[in-house]
Amino acid sequence: MKRLLTSLFFVVGALACYAANPTIAIVPRPASVEVLQGEFVLSPKTVICFDDKSLAPTAQFYAAELSDMCGRRPKIASRPIGKSPILLSLDDSFEEEQYTLHITPKAITVEGGSPKAVFYALQSLLQIATDAESSSAAGRLLPAVKIADKPYFGYRGAMLDVCRHIFTVEEVKRYIDILALHKINRFHWHLTDDQGWRIEIKRYPELAKIGAMRKETLVGKYRQSEIYDGTPYGGIFTQDEVREVVRYAAERYIEVIPEIEMPGHAVAALSTYPHLGCSGGPYNVRTTWGISKEVFCAGKETTFEFIENVLAEVIALFPSKYIHIGGDECPKGAWKACKACQKRIAEEGLKDEHELQSYFVRRVEKWLNEHGRQIIGWDEILQGGITQSATVMSWRGKKGGIAAAKLGNDVIMTPNTHCYIDYYQTESPAENGEPLANGRRPLPASRVYALDPYEGLTEAECAHIKGVQVNLWTEYIATFDHVQHMLLPRLAALSEVGWSYDRKDFDDFCRRMNTLRKVYDAKSYNYAPYLFNGIK
Ligand code: ACM
Ligand code: ZN
Predict the structure, then answer these.
(1) Which of these, 109, 236, 244, 368, could form a disulfide with 212 (CB 3.0-4.6 Å)?
(2) Which of 156, 124, 267, 127 lies closest to 207, judged by CA?
């Protein structure tokens, strides 16, 4: 109830203030914006001051971000100094991601419930400053304003598949920069799949030589083309690189959640170690898309030994509470024909192969729980039953998430109907010059925006919906320019569902996107043009 009242307060405040304020345009939409009289001059004299040393990294970060707009890199001070300071401080009565941003002619004052909230306040400031076109001889003029803001959902995510196509560390960092701009706080890194194993595991160095490489790649659309490019393709992130990405993301208050796929989507691992499959192979890293019949054998102890050894290295690299263990698209034919799997079913008193999948997931979950972590799995982990502590990522529409919430499990909503940004963006892809993409239905920004993560749930069940996420599968996406084309501006729509669910307004979102577009331009992001051309 308290949350409902607080939300109501924020919504009423927001509506009242937005009506009087056509000029401040921030995405995701803040809870309340009150335009004041006067202007703050952003200039070479601007100093970023903070009163708590935990804010020093954020001060440093924005000194760089605001350099061009100030006319030089602003000085940083651990006490209030100067005539036009940006004052950063913490307020422990605020929630962790809650902030206020108060621009007056004399100062910019930021208060946040944590350094992360202060970071978000400055992302909002960056949008205001980029949008501010007027300037005086002294510097760039920012409109006086009072913003009070906090997010609706605690989990706001974006996934990147680096298995179908791999990207450089610099590109992954740029992806993280883009997430940070949109106040996204989880980067789901899809690291293993049938078409490539992408994380160095010291104990299994052959994964880098065999599992990370495929002989060639399908050209054109899966099931329509039979042409292959004849070019070996692959790559892996070393553990040093992984640590660098995790650190880089943490500096932007983004937690990296690694995904290690099991029991399906395991052909890269099986190609390296054929004894981990039911038939013993040989297997080849897949060169085409779709679902493989070959999966980890659930009967052999050596499978679990391998997985635990891999996860031991993974948890040493990733401090995240959650480890994503996949769980999707695991055909059961190989298990039906496998003596070891059938023996496991008999010995464990399991009803069928669905319960064998549940056995697999529970066993890995138990190991991760014992090592202080929790699992997220795609909604197929519901098959055969799940433990109460597993978080379900609903992707085959919302029904898996609805079922999980009704069971009392936590849920991340990422239905392919609204959140699969590997799908086409317009009704007429050919006419609009869209590159080859997945998906039967177009998924424009308006569709992402329309996501209602609570549909079909009672108020009590809604409490289990922890957040939302977009997923970027990369079967047809080989370059980082193309990644950005698929990501932007649909990520902006998702960010508003995650941050501003209780104050969504698509027309207003489109208006404010014209400002965020200026930030995209300033940073040379390769966003898709459709929304800005009226194709929404
Ligand atoms: C999925 O798209 N297979 C999770
Ligand atoms: Zn087996």
Answers:
(1) 236
(2) 267
Tokens of 203: 């104990």
Q: Note whether 159 and 125 are same-domain residues.
A: no
**What is d(CA 287, CA 323) in angstroms, rounded to the nearest whole number?**
27
Residues of the chain with pLDDT under 70: 1-22
Same domain (yes/no): 86, 163: no
Report the atom number in ligand 1 closest to the C-alpha of 378: 4
* Residue 239 DSSP SS3: helix
Residue 190 belongs to some domain of the structure: yes
Q: What is the pLDDT of residue 18?
A: 44
Cα atoms in the Cβ-side hemisphere of radius 13 Å centred on 296: 30
138 and 165 assigned to the same domain: no
| Cβ neighbours, 10 Å, residue 290 | 11
395 lines ligand 1 (CB under 6 A): yes
- Taking the CA of residue 329 as reference, the ligand 1 atom at the shortest distance is 3
Domain boundary among 149, 173, 207: 149
323 and 448 co-located in one domain: yes
Query: Domain of 430: which CATH number?
Result: 3.20.20.80
Indicate whether 66 and 94 sit together in one domain: yes
What does the pLDDT look like over 105-139, one tens digit per residue?
A: 999 999 999 999 999 999 999 999 999 977 788 89
Look at residue 143 and tell me if it is in a domain. yes
Segment 498-524, tens digit of pLDDT = 999 999 999 999 999 999 999 999 999
